[in-house]
Amino acid sequence: MSGEMKPVSVPLCPLAMASNPEKELLCIFGTGDLGRSLGQRLLQTGYKVVYGSRRPHSCGPLPQGAQVMSHAEAAHLSSLVVICIHREHYDFLQTLAPQLKGKVLVDVSNNHKTGLYSEANAEYLQRLVPGASVVKAFNTISAWSLQNGPSDANRQVYLCGDSSEAKQAVAEMATRLGLSVLDKGCLSAAKELEDFPLQLFPAWRLPLCLAVCLTAFFFFYLLIQDVVYAYVEQDKDISFRIMVSLANKVFPIVSLIMLSLCYLPGVLASFIQLYRGTKYRRFPGWLDHWMLCRKQMGLVSLGFAFLHVLYTLLIPIRYYVRYKAGERVVSLIRGNKTTEFDTTAAWRTDSYYSIGILGFGLYVLLGITSLSPVSNALSWREFTFIQSKLGHLTLFLCTLHVYLYGWDRFLNLSTYKWWTPPGYMLCLVVPSVVLVLKLLLLLPCVDRSLTRIRQGWERSEPGGDGSGKPLIT
Ligand code: NAP
Fold this sequence. Notes:
- The protein is an alpha/beta fold.
- The chain has two domains: 14-198, Rossmann fold, CATH 3.40.50; 202-454, no CATH class.
- It is built from 20 helices and eight strands.
- The protein has an eight-stranded mixed beta sheet, with helices on both faces.
- α8 links the parallel β7 and β8 (180-183).
- α11 (245-276) packs parallel to α19.
- The longest helix has 33 residues, at 202-234.
- The two termini are 31 Å apart.
- The structure holds NADP nicotinamide-adenine-dinucleotide phosphate.
- Residues 30-35, 53-55, 59, 84-86, 89, 92, 108-110, 139, 142-143 line the site of NADP nicotinamide-adenine-dinucleotide phosphate (NAP).
- NADP nicotinamide-adenine-dinucleotide phosphate binds next to α2.
């Protein structure tokens, strides 16, 4: 960042414009996709636009009303120049440094991958034209959205620069284009802005990878346990179960594990704070990253829970289920037999279904409240109440749902095919651990210490003053 403030003449004050019927003239270097779209929007908004081009006489059709001339001539006419050119071609701007002195240069450029250059494009531009004030802006807005009118997702303009007057001028232009502006600070923030458009669902990557790995693992685990086992040990071909039965085992397993993984980092973070006796030391990077993608992890797990519900609703119309039910009735009639009503089984299945439905209802509530339009309407207290208190209750109900499904099968040796536990038992490990750890944190003595730490109290280090008073206020 250069500490030096450059002389800038900034003419874009709205009041000045209102009193001056003369249209403001802006300059755009480059007649490519972004240059044309931006020019068109600026003309529609009431600006005059002049293009600076290498080929002013053969640059193709431009927005109606725009002028085109050489770079040097165009730069001379406006105090603000938007550089709609790829960074690779910036060299020629050095030769225009005298003409660009004192101007605001808007760098809109992006790179096609991260880490391509050690220095941000905007900082490079500033180095080429030290007499100008470079502002990084508009790089997250696409030519397409400028042409079609920006939608909500495409309305945000991030800008940064070392001159506050230059940033003010660019911000006014963006606001007049109907965009909302967020100042990200000095020009040293440009690299971060240039990396924005290159990110592809960064917060979804970990949850999606996890979901794919868990699904693949449990699919093959259950395939061996159910289908391969029946084939090898009982000489039965039940491969048709892959499509519905197996899927309906894998989806809830993945869903429950991922739900518990949403709450595990919070619990781990609490134990780390208790161990360190302070909240002022940063968590390890992996824990930070994990905590930042809890919402996405929760939404992916909710998706799997939905699949489980849909597959469960399908059960009564399955050919296999209808065949087995009919066959059983016929065999009872043939043998002139009846079956006793089993109250325990009725209790078990009803509780299992009922707890599952309650858990799913809360699960959906968590999903809805994590969406920005809903969460923005909630106070911080309401949001944490739903996501933390109701979230742990949801995890408890869903875990109980699986325990009720297992019932007394946990003690039955025949469920352990080839001495391996069934999938639903495996999937109980993480949620049970999370719930036990959470219960420990709720113990009054632990809860009291944690609350004090979160209010700023720090445990004295050996050699400290030993007062146990907050070291940081
Ligand atoms: P483009 O369609 O390729 O246009 C680039 C323009 O740069 C050309 O039309 C040309 O204009 C000029 N140019 C090309 N080679 C040059 C050279 N050697 N020397 C001087 N000028 C040269 O690119 P674009 O899509 O408009 O993108 C322009 C900049 O905006 C890029 O930095 C890009 O990263 C950024 N951006 C683009 C978008 C988008 O949606 N397209 C979105 C955000 C940011 P003349 O022939 O008139 O000289």
